[in-house]
Hints:
This protein is α+β, with helices and mostly antiparallel strands and 287 residues long. It is 32% helix and 29% strand. The longest helix is centred in the N-terminal third of the chain and has 25 residues, at 2-26.
Amino acid sequence: MIRRRYRGCTQGAWIVSVGMLFASCTSGAWKASVDPLGVVGSGADVYLYFPVAGNENLISRIIENHESKADIKKIVDRTTAVYGAFFARSKEFRLFGSGSYPYAFTNLIFSRSDGWASTKTEHGITYYESEHTDVSIPAPHFSCVIFGSSKRERMSKMLSRLVNPDRPQLPPRFEKECTSEGTSQTVALYIKNGGHFITKLLNFPQLNLPLGAMELYLTARRNEYLYTLSLQLGNAKINFPIQFLISRVLNAHIHVEGDRLIIEDGTISAERLASVISSLYSKKGSS
């Protein structure tokens, strides 16, 4: 009887200890409100909003050949939506993920033996650096990731924008998709140099089209994506040739509204879309 009571006490003490450990770990979590786009920052060449549900196959294809594929997948598996920015000059992606993360066990997940170096910001937020990728989980409901070249921004700088957000100015529809809070599965992209992206979509990567900013919205449908694209036209003298070229290559409804070329009901395979998106940050695509 005494032994049973002792065993019960030790088991209870163990449970309480673990609970206290977990509580003490989460007590230091970031509790203030967070602006995802303000954290990734302004001045990017590409912005994206990526709900994970319904788009898992596309995400797997995009990160398939990345050096930090396994580490990125750890984060994605716990993510409901990604807010991202790509910076061509420094060849880096900054990602803010909303979801459910193992905040209390980051030291076990991102261990020194696996090549991670642990550091803290002036606000006491822990982050982990490796050769290609830097990660921080400031709270159980969001994470921050930077991956890219050695010129990429330091994670401490990104985390400083939790306090002082640097929010980019983005189109109304893009903003609307970002605030859908998981109710939409639409992938949204805003690209500063629309000509660079559209030539890859047309499969004419060497063609230099004088085009402005582009908005792209994609919805998964079986193994392909249905998309709507809005492209700012540049030189009025060549607008018609550009419209003609695009209409000959893309199977979609195309028309002009003011200074914008609108492409609706276009389709693209998940494999092709992943290739085009990946080319935006690949060494070849971002040189």
